[in-house]
Structure formats: C-alpha cells, structure tokens
Amino acid sequence: MEDRFILWAQVRSGTPRMRIDSGGVLRPERWPEGGGIVYLGDVASSFLSALGPHAPPEFIERPGFDEQRWTLAASSSGLQIIIRSESYWGFALLARCYLNRIEIIGERSDVGRLVMDVLASLGHNPWNAAFGWAFKRHTNLSIP
C-alpha cells in the first residue's frame, strides 16, 4: 500500500542553476536549446539525486520573475515526488527565505530510505527553519 508524506524543508543554497526547456523539462544550465532559468536549491537537488535513475523532472508550475518559486514532479522505482519551492519570509532576497514542500508517494520503507539518503547528502538538518516564526505562519506547523 502506498502512503503519502508531506515534508517541509529549509533551503540553504539556491544552487544549482538549471534550465527549463520548451516542454517544461528540467535541463542542465548549458542545455544547447537554451530555455528559462531556474534555481533548484540544495534540498530539491538532493531529493532528485537520491531518487535514483529517473526521467528528467517536469515542471507543473514554471518559475516566472522569481526563479526560485516553482513546482516540479519526478518519479522512479515506485516513488513519486512533487517539490514546490516558495518564499516564506521577507522579499525572498536570500536562499534562506525559501522553503521546499516535498510530497512523496510510495511505500513507507522506500520513502524512509529516500529521506535518509537526502539527510546524509545535505550534511545539515533541512527541517530546521531559519525563521521559525515565519515558518510556523506559512505552514501552520509548529517546530521545536
């Protein structure tokens, strides 16, 4: 039976800088056909890497003026993830002003493996918000 999990993670770094092709697919920054710019961020990049082999992620909501506000989806090995990047404090002038809402659908054990792989690759706890009061207001969740 598949379960649905929703995690909120603090973005610390806006890199890597990537491109979105005309079909809404995530591509490397040096993609020969060009495309719109998107800042993926450390958390989303780690989730996509830990997901394992998968087709290029597709954007559900493309970034506009703000290259760090977007929603993308990817799936692999029985796991589906939807990552939404959004500002939660100030005018989003810094990467730390962004949160990622990560929705993961899959078997509990597979989701656990994915999350542990992400934690190991990040080297910091993404569940610690930089601005606790703004995090609580934005997500309606309390943090210790």
Count of β-strands: 8
* Count of domains: 1
Provide the structure class. alpha+beta
Terminal-residue CA separation: 31 Å
H and E string: EEEEHEEEEHH
Low-confidence stretches: none
Radius of gyration: 15 Å
How many helices? The count is 3
Determine the fraction of residues in helical runs and give it as a percent range: 10-25%
Task: Provide structural commentary.
- There is one protein chain.
- The chain is α+β, with helices and mostly antiparallel strands and 144 residues long.
- The chain has one domain.
- It contains three helices and eight strands.
- Helix 1 packs across helix 2 (108-122).
- The chain is globular, with a radius of gyration of 15 Å.
- It starts with a strand and ends in a 5-residue tail after the last helix.
- The mean pLDDT is 86.
Give short descriptive properties of this protein.
alpha+beta; five-stranded antiparallel β-sheet; 3 helices; 22% helix
Concise account of the structure shown:
This protein has helices spanning 42-50, 108-122, 132-139, and strands spanning 3-10, 17-20, 26-27, 36-39, 58-61, 70-76, 79-87, 98-106. The chain has 144 residues and is an alpha+beta fold. A five-stranded antiparallel β-sheet has the order 1-8-7-6-5.
